[in-house]
Amino acid sequence: MSTNSPGVVLGLTGGIASGKSTVSHYFRALGVTVIDADLIARKIVEPGQPALSEIVETFGEDVLHRDGTLNRTSLGERIFQDADARARLGTITHPRIAQEMARQSAAAFERGEPWVLYDAALIVENGLYRAFDALIVVACSPQTQLQRLMSRDDLSRTDAQRRIDAQMPLADKLKVADFVIDNDQSLDHTQAQVEELFSTINERVRTGGSARTPA
């Protein structure tokens, strides 16, 4: 985030089952610090964390498993088609996620890393992409997305399409992308794009230029 950060933060996002995790893995293999929003989100709702207590106060005890851990399936069913409930959950989790993201970014910059990636599904939906120095969107065709989701989550075509339709269209995310990774072909093709983009960003950032435009 260019205004307050000593380093460069790029956002990484995509649609459900578009291959964002694959791209994230390739960037990690190249030595980039990837801050995983989903991993942070899981950690802040572990037993004993304040966020979990607030979630129970807001949504009730039935969002917990018997062992006291968060029943993400139950909570997901509560908020899936309820915008107000999603907003209430966001007020509990988003500030804590942002705080941990800032901590991890600062630690990376203190180690001398010039840029980091913030990997999150809802960067565009919540407007957070505007705070980043650039945005990378992972894309694939609607047909590929549907087939991958059906296979990955063992869903029927109808259920998989319903989940896709509940999200922001990938086309809308592409409109605000600075870089696009096409994940509609082979893994080798995807990896080659990541390596090329890594080199491009590295050169621009290390020479003092913007991640968005050539230095």
From TrEMBL:
<comment type="pathway">
    <text>Cofactor biosynthesis; coenzyme A biosynthesis; CoA from (R)-pantothenate: step 5/5.</text>
</comment>
<dbReference type="InterPro" id="IPR027417">
    <property type="entry name" value="P-loop_NTPase"/>
</dbReference>
<dbReference type="GO" id="GO:0005737">
    <property type="term" value="C:cytoplasm"/>
</dbReference>
<keyword id="KW-0547">Nucleotide-binding</keyword>
<dbReference type="InterPro" id="IPR001977">
    <property type="entry name" value="Depp_CoAkinase"/>
</dbReference>
<feature type="binding site">
    <location>
        <begin position="17"/>
        <end position="22"/>
    </location>
    <ligand>
        <name>ATP</name>
    </ligand>
</feature>
<dbReference type="GO" id="GO:0004140">
    <property type="term" value="F:dephospho-CoA kinase activity"/>
</dbReference>
<dbReference type="GO" id="GO:0015937">
    <property type="term" value="P:coenzyme A biosynthetic process"/>
</dbReference>
<keyword id="KW-0808">Transferase</keyword>
<comment type="similarity">
    <text>Belongs to the CoaE family.</text>
</comment>
<protein>
    <recommendedName>
        <fullName>Dephospho-CoA kinase</fullName>
        <ecNumber>2.7.1.24</ecNumber>
    </recommendedName>
</protein>
<dbReference type="GO" id="GO:0005524">
    <property type="term" value="F:ATP binding"/>
</dbReference>
<keyword id="KW-0173">Coenzyme A biosynthesis</keyword>
<keyword id="KW-0418">Kinase</keyword>
<keyword id="KW-0963">Cytoplasm</keyword>
<dbReference type="Pfam" id="PF01121">
    <property type="entry name" value="CoaE"/>
</dbReference>
<comment type="function">
    <text>Catalyzes the phosphorylation of the 3'-hydroxyl group of dephosphocoenzyme A to form coenzyme A.</text>
</comment>
<keyword id="KW-0067">ATP-binding</keyword>
